[in-house]
Amino acid sequence: MPDLSRLQIAVYGAIAVALLLIGTRSIRGEESGAAPFHASHEGTFQISGSGSGDVVVHVAGAVRRPGVYRLPAGARVTDAVERAGGTTSRALPDAVNLAARLADGQQVVVPEASPRGPAAAASAASGEGPIGLGTATVEQLDTIEGIGPVTAQEIVDFRDQHGGLASVEQLDQISGIGPATMEALRSGLQP
Predict the structure, then answer these.
(1) Rounded mean pLDDT of the chain?
(2) Distance between CA atoms of 114 and 44, rounded to whole angstroms?
(3) pLDDT of residue 42
(4) Which of 90, 56, 94 lies closest to 78, judged by CA?
(5) Which uninterrupted H or E stretch holds 70?
(6) Buried (b) or exposed (e) across 97-113, using 16+ Cβ within 10 A?
(7) How high is the pLDDT of residue 29?
(8) Does domain 118-190 bear CATH number 2.60.120.10?
(9) DSSP of 115-143, one letter per residue?
(10) CA 29 to chain CA centroid, nearest Å
């Protein structure tokens, strides 16, 4: 085999480094989801080439076009609700912190008014049934066994910071809520 000159070795080395960089960039792009998507209101996904700094959120509940949407970084919950076509006539938009900043991967749930009307809200407030997770006040949460006023306030703050909650299971992210408290929450709250 003939000896390679220094120039040939340098060229082959540069080619090898370039191929490694391209391969690494390709692998990182696949792992981070380099082909961003969002669901249109027809239920199809569209692929977009740009997306650095964007957030992808799932808007559900009492909105006209629930789905997955891509919004610019720094967008607020109100922007996501508007992108989903706004609220329906049965929505309770005051139960969601519309001013909260969106986080990538967040689910925004706009709760719907109870079909039973104000009587259902009154019975929930009086402790006769489960309390609505999206609308519960600190005082209502404080009535659940194992929840004191401090934890109740942390739950409301957590809900406001995350633009609502889709399930009781999300509350396990709050410090001080252990397995026993989660069981009390499951029986005392409804989504």
Answers:
(1) 76
(2) 30
(3) 47
(4) 94
(5) strand 67-72
(6) bbebebeeebbbbbbbb
(7) 60
(8) no
(9) TTTHHHHHHHHTTSSPEETTT--HHHHHT
(10) 22
pTM score over 0.90: no
Q: Taking the domains of the chain in order of start, what are their residue ranges?
A: 1-34, 37-110, 118-190
Cα distance between the two ends of the chain: 73
Report the alpha-carbon distance of residue 7 to residue 14 in Å, rounded.
Answer: 11
Q: Where are the alpha helices (DSSP H) in the chain?
A: 6-31, 77-83, 118-125, 138-142, 149-161, 179-188
pLDDT tens for each residue of 69-83: 999 999 999 999 999
- By the 10 Å C-beta count (0-12 exposed, 13-18 middle, 19+ buried), 33 is classed as exposed
> Are 78 and 100 within 8 A, CB to CB?
no
Structure tokens at 138: 């600190």
Select from 167, 169, 176 the least CA-distant residue to 148. Answer: 176
8 Å CB contact between 164 and 110: yes
At which residue do the structure tokens 């970084």 appear?
Answer: 73
